[in-house]
Design brief:
Layout (H helix, E strand, L loop, with lengths): L1 H7 L2 H33 L6 H11 L3 H4 L1 H13 L1 H10 L1 H20 L8 H27 L6 H29 L2 H32 L1 H8 L3 H4 L2 H25 L8 H21 L2 E3 L3 E2 H4 L3 H28 L10
Antiparallel strand pairs: 1-2
Helix pairs in contact: 2-5, 2-8, 2-9, 2-14, 2-16, 5-6, 5-16, 7-8, 8-9, 9-10, 9-14, 10-11, 10-13, 10-14, 13-14
C-alpha cells in the first residue's frame, strides 16, 4: 500500500489514473444520456401514430446530438492518453466500431431528413432512425461484452457478447420508455409504461449476465469480488440493484391507474431508478476492471503516454471537461419539463 501511495504521488502515477477517471465518467455519461435517446429511437416502431412519433422525437430533439459529445471525449482520451490500449481495443473491435459509427451516421441523417421529406417518404426515414438506433445499441452491447471477457475471439465469447448486445437494447429501451413517461402525457405516456414493463425482465437478465461474466473472465476479478472481507463490503451493490428493479416494477404497476386520473405523481421514478441501476452497474464494472484497460494484459500505467504528453493533455482536459459538464447541465435545465409539439 505504501508503494502504491508513493507511486500515485508522482505525475507518472496519478496522471494515468486521472485520465482513466475522466474516460470512465465520459463513457458512463454517454451510456446514460445517449442511452435514453437511442431507446426512444428503438421504440419509434412501436406506434403508427405520426403525432406520437413526432412527440417522441421532440422529447429528445434538444439533447440527442450533444449527448454524443461524451462518446467523442471518452474515445479521444483513450487515444491520446492511452495509445497502446487504444490500438489494442480498437484493433479487436474494428468491425463492431465500424458498424456502430455507420449506424450513428444513419441515425443522424434520418433525424434531420424525416422532417424535410414529403409525407410518403417520412416513414422510410423513421425506419432508418429506428434501424440506426437498434444497430448502434447492439454494437455497443457487443463491445461491452468483449471488454468484459478480455476480447476473447472465441465462439463462446462472441455468443456472450451478442447476448449482452441484446440485453443492452432492452436496457436502452427501458431507459427510453422511462424518459417518455417523464416527458410526454396522454395515450403516448400510457404506452410508454407498457413498453417499459416489457423491457424490464431482459434488462435484469443482462445485469445478471454481466455480473457473472466479469468474474468468470478473470481469476483476479473473481478474487476481488468473492474473497473475504470484500464479499461482505460489496454485498450492498447487488442488493441495491435488486431493490431498484423492484421499485421500477412497483412504479410501473401503479402508474397506469394514476395517469388515467390525470395524476403525474411519480412519473420520474422509473427513469431515476433505471439511472441508479446503470450507475451501480458501472461502479461494479469499474471496480472489477481497475486498474486494467485490457483485462490481465494492459493496465493504466502500462498503456499511458509519456508523462510530458499527459501533462500537456491534462491542462486541456481541466479546461474543457468542466465546460462540457456546464453546457450539458444548462441544456437540461432549459428544456426540462414536458416536451412541446415538434415545430420547424
Amino acid at each position: 500500500m505504501l508503494e502504491i501511495g508513493i507511486e500515485l504521488a508522482r505525475p507518472g502515477g496519478w496522471l494515468p489514473v486521472f485520465f482513466a477517471l475522466v474516460m470512465a465518467i465520459s463513457m458512463i455519461a454517454y451510456v446514460i444520456l445517449d442511452g435514453y435517446d437511442l431507446g426512444v429511437g428503438i421504440l419509434l416502431r412501436q406506434t403508427d401514430d405520426l403525432s406520437e412519433k413526432d412527440a417522441m422525437i421532440a422529447s429528445i430533439g434538444p439533447f440527442w446530438d450533444a449527448n454524443e459529445t461524451w462518446l467523442v471525449l471518452g474515445v479521444g482520451v483513450l487515444l491520446v492518453a492511452f495509445p497502446l490500449a487504444h490500438g489494442t481495443i480498437l484493433g479487436a473491435l474494428y468491425l463492431p466500431v465500424a458498424i456502430m459509427l455507420a449506424a450513428l451516421t444513419l441515425r443522424g441523417v434520418a433525424f434531420d431528413f424525416r422532417v424535410k421529406a414529403k409525407a410518403p417518404y417520412r416513414p422510410w426515414w423513421d425506419r432508418a432512425f429506428y434501424t440506426g438506433s437498434l444497430v448502434a445499441s447492439w454494437s455497443q452491447g457487443f463491445m461491452l461484452g468483449q471488454l468484459i471477457i478480455g476480447f476473447q475471439n472465441t465462439t463462446v465469447g462472441n455468443a456472450f457478447s451478442a447476448v449482452i448486445g441484446v440485453a443492452l437494447i432492452a436496457a436502452y429501451r427501458l431507459l427510453g420508455a422511462s424518459w417518455l413517461i417523464m416527458k410526454t402525457d396522454g395515450a403516448l405516456q400510457q404506452k410508454a409504461v407498457q413498453w417499459a414493463k416489457r423491457s424490464l425482465l431482459l434488462t435484469a437478465v443482462g445485469v445478471v449476465a454481466i455480473s457473472l461474466g466479469t468474474p468468470w473472465a478473470s481469476e483476479r476479478i473473481f478474487e476481488k469480488w468473492f474473497s473475504f472481507p470484500n464479499v461482505v463490503m460489496l454485498f450492498p451493490i447487488p442488493v441495491m440493484t435488486v431493490v431498484l428493479f423492484y421499485v421500477i416494477h412497483r412504479s410501473l404497476s401503479r402508474l397506469p391507474l394514476r395517469l388515467s386520473e390525470g395524476n403525474q405523481y411519480g412519473v420520474a421514478v422509473p427513469f431515476m431508478a433505471t439511472l441508479g441501476i446503470f450507475l451501480l452497474s458501472s461502479y461494479g464494472l469499474g471496480y472489477s476492471l481497475f486498474p486494467w484497460l485490457v483485462i490481465d494484459r494492459l493496465n493504466f500505467w502500462q498503456a499511458a503516454s509519456s508523462v510530458e504528453a499527459l501533462m500537456v493533455i491534462f491542462y486541456g482536459v481541466v479546461v474543457v471537461f468542466p465546460i462540457i459538464i456546464a453546457y450539458t447541465a444548462f441544456s437540461y435545465r432549459v428544456f426540462w419539463g414536458k416536451s412541446t409539439p415538434l415545430k420547424y
